[in-house]
Amino acid sequence: MIKKLIFTTLITFGVIHHSNSQQINSFTPKLIIGGKGEILTITGSGFGNVQGNSYVSFFQESNTYSDATTSNQLKYLSWSNTEIKLEMPVAFSNKIKLNINGNEYFSSETLKVNANLGYRNVNPLIYNLLTDNNKKGGVTWFVHPVYWNNPEIKEAIADVMREFRCKTGANYIIEPLTKWVPLNLNQGIHILAPDSSLNVVGFNDKLWTSCILGTETFYNYQTQLLRFSTTQNWYYGKGQPPSGTAKFRYVLYHEIGHSLGLGHVNELGESMYPSVTNLPSDNWCSRDSITSSEQKAIQHYIQLSQNFTFRACGINPMKQITNCEDVYNERLQVKETEFKREVLYPNPAKNYIQINLLSEVPTDIEIRNIFGKICLNTKIESSEKISLPSNLPSGLYMVSLKSVIGQSYHRLIIQ
Ligand SMILES: [Zn+2]
Questions:
Q1: For residue 127, which of 316, 259, 301, 296 has the smallest C-alpha distance?
Q2: Could you tell me the distance, in angstroms and rounded to a whole number, from the CA of residue 204 to the centre of ligand 1?
Q3: 358 C-alpha to center of ligand 1: Å?
Q4: In the prediction, which pLDDT does 405 show?
Q5: Phi, psi of 161 (to 5 degrees)
Q6: What is the pTM of this model?
Q7: Is residue 5 part of a domain?
Q8: Cβ–Cβ contacts within 10 Å for residue 194, how many?
Q9: Are residues 192 and 316 part of one domain?
Q10: Which end of the chain has the smaller Cβ count within 10 Å, N or C?
């Protein structure tokens, strides 16, 4: 039997599909926050199996689409002929532009960007964060006396700060600025003040610093200013501002939004819309709150500012707020003054001692000499002055304060 040999020749053809079907069919989500690392998925056809020189481009505040260099720096998670996934950068609402090998394609729908969180690097995302700047857990805004001494303005500032504290966790507190300082970033403190030389309605200046430890560089805001024009006809109340006035609280929402990392958006209805007086913001500035997208973006920024692990140059994370209504930090101030209160004075003492109780409850006082002998035994109902027995020799004594709260011992020198 002759074996029949069959030679099979396989011929493969290299086919390049020059298809005209490049198009964006859809994308998700339709509503997004820029700069926060949210994933945008674009679906369609003809994107190419690999990214190559192709890129996705977004409309910018500069009124142009991002160029090839900027668009190529974005964080692309995947790229296939029918689907692209990438992290959403800072952008303005508009159609998405796709550049495939030099040809441009636009989405038919508009991608809405309701908030933008500013970064210093997009891939990976690196921000200038906030820290425990005041060693009280966050940032103290020193309020200029012209504002602090005007109850209406002070209340407006306190209310707006409370809104951010309670909705985002931003550990911002306010204190009066008690000495004159020039309004610049060299003061090393955060200042909120009117500024007669400001030629815009409001402005937020920021000074960032960096600290390097090993291979890591940490960036944070060290000093900021919130300045407000003195030439505006300001309205400090709530609700809709009377016509011809500028709503101070609304401008403050906008500027504090900047101080908490937010950039502008072109979505109507958002506090971060670039213009803050007259139309169109007069259409929505009657609300006395931030929007849910602003809240989400800032919450994310605060979480980053609370949870970083970098420790050097005295940098510690911003702390969580215990009582968000307490914008004056009264709880802490009470503690501090209590701490500063001397329990006994004068010390050394001569004829009397003043006893200051941490809690005003009935307290047993006992004074013993160094041999343990009781020299004075009395009870007080509240902080008061006690006369010392005139026959007590000079020397060291031990004072015991005992109440339902507990017992404490203090050294006392009698002259
Ligand atoms: Zn702005």
A1: 301
A2: 8
A3: 47
A4: 63
A5: -65, -40
A6: 0.76
A7: no
A8: 16
A9: yes
A10: N
Ligand 1 mean position, distance from CA 234 (Å): 18
Whether residues 356 and 242 fall in one domain: no
pLDDT digits (tens, 9 = 90+) for 2-21: 445 444 444 555 544 445 58
* Per-residue CA distances from 316 to 135, 137, 308 (Å): 9, 9, 9
Triad 407, 410, 411: Cα angle to 5°: 155
- Asked whether the beta carbons of 178 and 191 are under 8 A apart, the reply is no
Distance 318 CA to ligand 1 centre (A): 24
Tell me how far the alpha carbon of residue 274 lies from the centroid of ligand 1, in angstroms: 5
Q: What is the CATH number of the domain that holds 345?
A: 2.60.40.3080
The domain total for the chain is 3
- Judgement on whether residues 160 and 289 belong to the same structural domain of the protein: yes
**What are the CA-CA distances from residue 13 to residues 10, 46, 352 (Å)?**
10, 20, 108
Res 157: pLDDT = 98
pLDDT, tens digit, for every residue of 281-301? Answer: 999 999 999 999 999 999 999
Domain extent for 189 = 139-330
2 lies in a domain? no
